[in-house]
Amino acid sequence: MQYRQIIERIYDELKDYTGHGKVAGYIPALSKVNPHSFGITVATLDGEIFSAGDSGGRFTIQSISKVFTLAMVSRHMGNRLWEIVGREPSGTAFNSLIQLEQEKGIPRNPFINAGALVITDRLMTLYDDPKKDLLTFVRELSGNSGLDYDKEVALSEIEHSYRNLALANFVKSFGNIHNDPQELINTYCHQCSISMNTEELAKSFLFLASGGVIPSSGQRVCGTRSSKRLNALMLTCGLYNESGDFAYRVGLPGKSGVGGGVVAVIPGRLAIAVWSPELNSNGNSYRGIEALERFTTYLGVSVF
Ligand code: GLU
């Protein structure tokens, strides 16, 4: 009951809080979204769902997908993962090339684009049918077997991925990408185009609130230590160069995407997803972050 009241209050307080940012325009298909869409869902470990606003509206999860690919790859690689990617905040924009040369093609963390490309490259090597296997994984996590890629957004991003292709080629020149860069971009843009609503997104992050187990099915996705580590990476690197500010304001592990989604986890309790497509200058949903800050403030609970 408390959760319902809190998210309804937040929805009410923020429903007109628009016009302070822009929808992502660098992927043409993304710019077609209604900038004022606003949905919130809390999913608890007991299986309760509380939603407000446009919680049924689908959007592409973009960089939030990087948590799913990382979970799939780290299952196979264990500690060898840290030979191909770092685990420190970058302090740079999500699509920056700047550190890569100095750091010899080892991206600073798995959530900046360069790091995510390295992870998706290994996904392609480790899995027989990476696009299908990723979809199967996300369907299991969310409990919705109908989830799919948004082909229009995927193709639009592929057509305009000059920067991501540059990152992939650059990292490959250091030997840290094994597959063909164009094929890698194709897989990466598909993962970013997974289309979900806030309810599906919140549910699909519950495994990180429950030490690696999907609460509805009891299926183990990863060990408790791995779940702790994924949460720690989200806390320190999940919002790019705004990760420190997010930790300060919200106090939870979280992950954002340029589709306007932001998801956060209270370990032992719940996952919460917010969708609001207008982005701030860091590429993060400013209203999504504001909603999450109010959520932990009103609830009086965070990881700290
Ligand atoms: N598809 C986006 C890109 O690679 C993801 C970025 C994001 O969501 O932050 O540019």
What does this entry look like structurally?
By secondary structure, the protein is an alpha+beta fold. It has a single domain, classed as DD-peptidase/beta-lactamase superfamily (Beta-lactamase), CATH 3.40.710. 44% of the residues lie in helices and 11% in strands. The protein contains 12 helices and 8 strands. The strands form 2 sheets. A 5-stranded antiparallel sheet has the order 2-1-8-7-6, sandwiched between helices. A 3-stranded antiparallel sheet has the order 3-5-4. Strand 7 and strand 8 form a beta hairpin. The longest helix is centred in the middle third of the chain and has 14 residues. The protein is globular, with a radius of gyration of 18 Å. The structure holds glutamic acid.
- CATH architecture descriptor: 3-Layer(aba) Sandwich
Termini separation comes to 23 Å
**Mean pLDDT across every amino acid position:** 96
Number of strands: 8
Tally of DSSP helical segments: 12
Form type: globular
What portion of residues belong to β-strands? 5-15%
> CATH H-level name... which superfamily?
DD-peptidase/beta-lactamase superfamily
The spatial strand order of the largest sheet comes to 2-1-8-7-6
Bound molecules: glutamic acid
Q: Domains counted in the coordinates: how many?
A: 1
